[in-house]
Amino acid sequence: MRHQNSVFHSITKHIPWHAFARLVEEHGADARVRRLSTKSQLLALLHGQLAGAESLRDIVGALESHAPRLYHLGAARVSRSTLSDANTLRCAEVFTGLFARLVAQALPGLRKKMREPLHLIDSTSFRPSRLSADWARFSATACGVKLHVVHDPDADCPLYAAPSGPKVNDITAAKDMPIDPMATYVFDLGYYDYGWWAKLDAAGCRIVTRLKANTKLSNGVENFAREGSGVLSDRIGRLPQRLSASRKNPFAGPAREVRVRTETGKVLRILSNDLDALVEEIAALYKRRWRIELFFRWVKQTLKIRHFLGRSENSVRIQLAVALIAFLLLRLAHEAQNTVHGLLAFARLVRANLMHRRPIDRLTEPAPSPIRCAAQLNLPLSPC
What is the Cα–Cα distance from 310 to 312, expressed in whole angstroms? Predict the structure, then answer.
C-alpha cells in the first residue's frame, strides 16, 4: 500500500511555500535563528487553530505526540518557551503577507461566477486579558482588539484584514484599505465620511450604505416605487453642500436615497451613488451586508481566535493572521473535495482527523481497522 499523508499535510499543501520563503527572506525572519524556523512556527500555530488548542502547551503537547509525522510536514519539534518567544519577537508581516498572497491565489477559484466584485466592510472586536493593557487598554477594567475586514460574499473569504487598537475608528482604518476600482462597497454607519465616499466614487465604485437620520437630500426627485416590494420611496438628490461653516463637501455628485421597511418594521434609509439600478437590487445589496457578520461568527466559533496565546501586540497580530490563513486553507481544501458539503461539518471532521493518514475526500468513511491495515501491508499481527 502506498504512503498516505496526514490530513494536516493535505490542508497545508495549499500554502504557496515559495512565496512564504521569499517573505521570510525579505523580512529576515530566520536570521540568527537556531531552533525554531518560521515555517515550523507557522505549522505549529496552524495546527493549534485547526485542532482547537487552548494554549501553547496544548500545541506543543499535540505536536510531541505526533513527532514522527512532523518530518513529512517539513516541521521540527518545538518547545513552549521557544514558540512564545517567536510569537513575541518574530516579524508579523511575514504572516500578514502570506495571508495576502493566499487570498490572491484562492480568489479566482473560490469566486464561482464572473461578476462585479462585491466588498463588504466591517470590523469585529476581541477581548484580550488585562496583561495586554500596555497596548490594548480600552477602559480602566477592559482591553480590546479590533479586526477590520473586507469580505467577498461570493467567494466567502476575506480579501483584506488589519488589526488595530480598540479606540481606532472604523473609518480611520478604512482609509488605509486598498480600493478596488469598479467594485461595489457595502458598509454601515461606522464608515460615514463624505471624503472617503468621494474617493470610492472617483474610482468608479458603487456605494451602498445607510444615511444618518439628520442627513437630508436636497433638490430631490421622486422615482416610482412599486407597491408590495417593501420599498417606501426612491429619491435622487444631493447631499449637504457644506459639512460645516468652513468645509465643503467633497462628495458633490448626485446620490440616491432608498427607504425600505425590514421584516421587523424598521425603516432604513439606504444611500447609493448608483442612479440606474433597480431599487430592489440596491435594497438586496445592503441586506447582503449581514454575510460579513456570519463570517465573524463562524471564525469566532470554529477557530481559536477569542483566546489569545500571547500578551504582546505582535503575538496577537500573528495569531489573527494565522487564524485567517487557517480559514482560507479550510475553504480551499473543502472546495477540492465533494464528500462533505458544509464548511462547518468539514472543519469538524478535519479537527477530528487532523493527524490521521487519510485522504481528504474520505473523512466520512470509517477508519480502517489494524487487522485490515496489517493485511494490506502483509505484516504479522502483534500478539495482544
Answer: 6
The pTM of this model reads 0.88
Cell of 3: 504512503
Q: Helix, strand, or coil here: 101?
A: helix
Q: Where are the beta strands (DSSP E) in 95-229?
A: 118-126, 145-152, 157-164, 184-186, 206-210, 218-223
Domains of the chain are: 7-95+309-376 (no CATH), 115-296 (3.90.350.10)
Confidence (pLDDT) at 377: 43
pLDDT of the residue at 376: 45
Instruction: Give strand pairing partners of 248.
Output: 242
The secondary structure element, H or E, covering residue 235 is strand 231-238
Helix (H, G, I), strand (E, B) or coil at 50: helix
Q: Please, where are the H alpha helices in 131-278?
A: 133-136, 170-174, 194-202
φ/ψ of residue 383, rounded to 5: -70, 150
